[in-house]
Design a protein that fits this description.
single chain, 191 residues, mainly beta, 5-stranded mixed beta sheet
Length: 191
């Protein structure tokens, strides 16, 4: 009598468009040995690798099936559920996008917790960087819709990273331009 393989594997749930890695820890009692693995990831993709990976392009719940076969022809099958969480959609508006150094720019978050319609997933964190790619003291915010007053002229790239309740993230960028505030001589009159 030959033993059946004992199936076991590890994985971590991911966000859509992320790769899920599977670590196979299946065993069999010697002197028998495992000769093959067949994975079905539940999304139409299969693999015969020992420790495969799969890129899930859509969020949802998938049933992953692993079939393990021994040298004696004995097999075991194990099904488990994996979760692919939705990715948020980061978006914002800067108003205005062209200002002087003494004018405030208001940033309005327009992000969604997922690309699904209707969207029922909440954004849990906002991470703004008003001087991307640099990090400047006082140049960040974690509120949904902050306002900023730039002290120097230039073109600044603003980065917003949003995280939804599942821990999935997305990033949006926009440029704003800051010019000098016009200086009018004290004795000048336009008339």
């Amino acid at each position: 009598v030959h033993p059946r393989p004992a199936i076991d594997f590890d994985w971590e749930d991911v966000c859509n468009d992320d790769t899920m890695y599977f670590t196979n820890i299946s065993t069999i009692t010697p002197p028998d040995f495992i000769t093959g693995y067949t994975w079905d990831f539940g999304d139409g993709v299969t693999s015969t690798a020992t420790n495969p990976h799969n890129l899930y392009q859509n969020n949802g719940v998938y049933i992953v099936t692993l079939t393990v076969v021994s040298d004696a022809g004995c097999s075991s099958i194990w099904d488990t559920v994996v979760v692919v969480s939705p990715t948020p959609v980061a978006a914002f508006i800067a108003n205005p996008t062209l200002v002087n150094t003494e004018e405030q720019i208001d940033f309005t978050d327009q992000s969604f917790g997922s690309s699904d319609v209707p969207d029922t997933i909440d954004i849990s964190t906002w991470a703004w960087n008003f001087y991307y790619p640099a990090t400047v003291m006082g140049g960040t915010s974690s509120i949904p819709s902050p306002s900023v007053l730039y002290g120097d002229t230039g073109t600044y790239t603003v980065q917003l990273v949003v995280t939804n309740e599942y821990g999935c993230t997305d990033t949006a960028y926009a440029d704003v331009q800051v010019g000098l505030h016009p200086i009018v001589a004290s004795g000048f009159s336009p008339d």
